[in-house]
Design goal:
Chain A: It is a multi-pass membrane protein. The complex is a heterodimer of chains A (374) and B (586). With 374 residues, chain A is an alpha+beta fold. Chain A contains nine helices and 14 strands. Classes of the chains: A alpha+beta (374), B mainly alpha (586). At the A-B interface, helix 1, helix 2, strand 2, helix 3 and strand 3 of A face helix 6, helix 8, helix 9, strand 4 and helix 11 of B.
Chain lengths: 374, 586
Amino acid sequence: MSADSSHDTGHEPGHEVINARTDALLADPGLPDHVWRPTDVDAKAEKRAERQVATLFGLSAICTVLFVVFYITLETGVDGPTIIGLGASNVALGVSLGLALLLIGIGVIQWARKLMGDHEISELRHPASSSEGDRAETLAALNAGLEESGIGRRPLVRNTLLGSVALLAAPAVVMLRDLGPLPNEVVGEYEGAGLHHTVWRKGMRVVRDVVGTPVKASDLEIGDLLNAEPEALFPTAENGLPELSGAELQIAKSKAALVMLRMDPNDIVSPVTRNWSVNGIVAYSKICTHVGCPISLNERTTHNLLCPCHQSTFDLADSGKVVFGPAGRHLPQLPLGVDDEGYLIALSDFLEPVGPSFWERNTKSPSEVAKGLS
Amino acid sequence: MSIDTSKVATSNKTAATASKPSKAGAAATWADERLGLAAMGKKNLRKVFPDHWSFMLGEIALWSFVVLLLSGVFLTLWFRPSMAEVTYQGSYDQMRGISMSEAFASALNISFDVRGGLLMRQMHHWAAMLFIAAMMIHLLRVFFTGAHRKPREVNWVIGCLLLLLGTLEGFTGYSLPDDLLSGTGIRAADGFIKSMPVVGTYISFFLFGGEFPGEAIIPRLYTIHVLLIPGLLLALIAAHMLLLVYHKHTQWPGPGRTENNVVGFPMLPVYAAKAGGFFFIVFGVTAIMGGLMSINPVWKFGPYDPTKVTAGSQPDWYMGWPDGALRIMPGIESHFWGSTWSWNVFLPIIVLPGLLFTVLLLLPFIEGWITGDKREHHLLQRPRNAPTRTATMVALMTLYGCFWAAGGNDIIAIRLHASINQITYFMRAAVFIAPVIAFIVTRRVCISLQRHDNETLLHGYETGVIMRTPEGSYYEKHLPISGAEAYTMTVRDRSSARLTEPAEADTNGVPAPKGRLSGLREKVRTLYYADDIDKPTAEELEEARHHAEHEAHALAAIDGHSADGHHFDGRHPVSEEPIRPEHHGH
């Protein structure tokens, strides 16, 4: 046992030493002696290991054959046979392929462990850096190259080159311009286009989602929650609305969806909410003002509506005010009325943008928003 | 290096004595005359790789990436990245006649009508999870053992970029089937983008080719998912591996293992066999997972419909932590001059991940700045021997865990019948408090373990043998640990030495000019090493050895009997030994 000594065994003349000082305190006992394995000294054990490895490879081949057999014989899909509640084809293919691969892997590793030489060998490390000589030579080469190019002596050439290459970034950026229209460019391109509009407009009937039938105030009991959409999404010969399809339909749906609740009119807190309700029926945008998930969970006793994505909770009795969660803004309310035939209609489009916040949004309180409808 | 292979399995020996030029030899000559392979092979065929179970974690990530490439190419043969509306006519009854995007219809086709298609889809998804999980655990291993120190900082940065790109690749991937869940994810992503001040709506309109959802997002995500990110991943993985080969792998300290060498098995045959075999194992495990464990059953969710959502909507687990931050962020929004600043979305989902990722990227550089350590390090450290570093990572893990748990606040509320409001309030506090507690506790645990190591070095290990002195007092007998163990434990720096020596003195002892931050740096360094327990000094070790010899002498009289403590330490056969030996005559 020596005093603290630097710990740098393995020096060779000419070998650059790594910049490392690890004070090891004790003398390095050196690599332990190699111990022969049973497979090295016992011919029987060696044969046994050889057979094990070959057996593993053989079993793998059988699994591969089984995979092909299963591929041909087992029917896929919902009508196919099942095992443990899962599709038999998927289970059989997965397990046979998995075992075929696994057995090869285990076999190869077993081969390495039992039969291949297991001598640990030692290799010298070199510092990650180049030698001083290499550095000097590289620097000299670099300087010679730069000198010959004359880049230092000819600032005019250098600067015009730098300028022109830098300018090439412009086409790369400019060419991305047609990825999409600007937010204000789509306005008027199709029904309800743009961030500030939806397909709702004055007099448009409220219809049930999926089926598209109009709704009468008397259809709803107190406490009933209804997912609704504008009639524009269900054009018929009778209502004479234009056909929507593809992206336009999806965009219209993603902004115009409604959630409606009938509550006791006396429970309504906010005057705006009361004004825009019909017999206690209120209609709000279904699109969460947080990041835009469709809101769907209703708490019956409180008139609170919860977004299943991030749990923002809105009070439908009080202008869709946020009562809990990460949303920063109330849920936009749609002013409701009744047409001649007694069906619920919108009195206008939403008076403020629906869905998640965005920078250009001019956000106002519900009572200020309400002034827009007059 | 010559090796005694006299006894290595006889079958190995014959190959080495091949005498006449074989066909393989001719092929090798042909190749070498054109590619100069021999020079490269000479260096690398017997390259040494050290062995330790924890070095396998990065390999899992590598091999699962290969599985991802293979299964991914298979899926592209049938998947149609199109949002054109079609009416499903495939074999899944519940969906027949329903309008959906071509992307979703082809995902159903792969799941139900292509034989092995569901298997490949599930393998692809499981391999993706494995890929990201393995990268994370590999990152933790590297950091906890100090493998990120010089000269490997650049490889740390590459590894972090791989994790970031892998996460984005995962997100773009699970968005492609255009089912209800993935559409909900894209819708939320649109909300995230729109929260960015000034440019949010523009980026959203450019990405979606107009208003959400449009018809462009799936084909665009597809290009990103199958070309852009995989290309970057492949290039970065290549760079990661090249640097690994150049630096040579780190190793644990031990007898014969120094900063200047690398001890282990040669690439050919042992390491090639083990690593290659491990590829088959990872591949096989993913296949079995794909066969037995259902994942992302898109047919249960149905096609994307912007008006629908499923309760308990959650992203894949690796996207869970920013989602958790989003859930517990208070709903703060500012409105100035007709503009809206949604801090409630922008801070947790855009700023926070960027910030934490930057911290992760900078960790080796921050540590290097604090310690002022400019040496190369090839020997790994035990986590306990760098208490502040270990505690820092555990604190970060705790922060991650808190956010991640917050991402499941609805599930926790349902399972534990707890109030979601209370869970959210709890999590808001926990993300600030829990990492601090974790930091302090981990640091103290590390320091206690350092103390324990010193005890073991000085007084030996606990034998479990209770001795009674003639006076009637009892003590537990300790025995010295082996020389190899003692050596391994003492290979480490003294933190006290690092604190006192000038950090940046060059080889001639000229101190570096002091920067403006040097005062702060001194303070942080003192805190970094504060309360570290140094290993014993040579004098202390010598004294302890004397003491042990003295004790051994005193106990020599009963040596060779059960009571010497050697016999029940699990290292010696005891079958012949009576518990209470016959009395020896004096």
